[in-house]
Automatic annotation (TrEMBL):
Organism: Autumnicola edwardsiae
Region (Disordered): 35-69
Upper taxonomic lineage: Bacteria, Pseudomonadati, Bacteroidota, Flavobacteriia, Flavobacteriales
Compositional bias (Polar residues): 35-50
Entry-linked Pfam families: Curlin_rpt
Record has Transmembrane as a keyword: no
Signal in keyword set: yes
Signal peptide: 1-19
Protein name: Curlin associated repeat-containing protein
Amino acid sequence: MKKFFLYTGAFMFGTIAFAQSNDSNVDQNGNANMATVSQVGSGNESNIYQSGGDADENTNHEATVSQEGSANLSDINQTEDDHIANVEQFGSNNYSDIDQSGSSNDADVYQEGVSNNSTISQIGDAGDTEPNNEAEVDQLGGVNNAFVYQGVGPNGEPIGATLNDATIMQEGNFNYAYIDQMGNNNDADITQWGDDNDAYQIQDGNSNDADIIQGEALTGWASSQSSLAQQEQYGDDNTAKITQRGNGHTALQAQYGEGNEVIAYQGNDDNFSRQYQDGNGNYANTQQYFSSNDSFQEQIGDNNWATTRQTGEGFNFSTIAQYGDANYTLHTQKGLNNGASTTQYGDGHTSNISQIGNNNSADVYQSSVIFPGPGIPGTGGPTTGSSM
């Protein structure tokens, strides 16, 4: 059964105004497709294409578009099984593009401002449990950009995804959010409260979880302005989270392997955090509560633990590098202009640096590895178990 309702036009009591017309195109092939389009303003365009469908399936396609301002554009393309897509655009010059190919995809877009852009592309198979994929975009301000791919293709291969979930919410202006998921059972969420924020999340693997939270209010200390958050996950069962409050933060996180966890929290202004994990079962956490702190953490190996806490007045610098397995490092900096560095080669090392005050410096080197090349005679490298 096909059902669609179209409404376009302008009406004024007393006189009839011939405003710029709205344009709606609906093309449905197959069984049990539904389409609803409502356009109230002028110069809006809606395009819906639905193909395939089987009356015996759960829900075969279904598209709802409501555009109430002017010069909004909505494109929905759904092919084959069980898709649902909802688009609402209330301002002007907004653009929404939804392309779903496969089975049991769901997409939700709501934009209420001017010049917002949203793109959703979902390709996948329902697998054993439905629905698979699912994407939601919510933009209330203006000039925001949101991109969600779960599949990923075309040209961003590989294609195919099952039971992925993506959520983007931007309440502010000039924000940019990007989610790219390849594999099965991945989950990604981006929340942005404020202006001029950028967030990127890429997942290639299975059962990964990634969250970015930039601000919890539009203005004030809880908002986020002009900050950058980027997370990449390659492997399975990894967890990553970035939380930013304040202005001008940068947080970069990458995970390669399985079962890794990385967390970054940034408050106040102008903090920088970079965390990298290559291996399995690693844990890294950076906490920056004041301004202008820098933290670098790198883990190559398995079951390493690293945490940096910068809670002082600011301008602290910390770097942790772990190359091996089961190493432990904790840096605590409470003050101004402190510097701390820990480098660990081998397995089972422990380092704890605590700096309370100003202008302190600490450097720790731990190794249980024999390196080739010049060194102490008979060793071929640095002294085993050295620390300085």
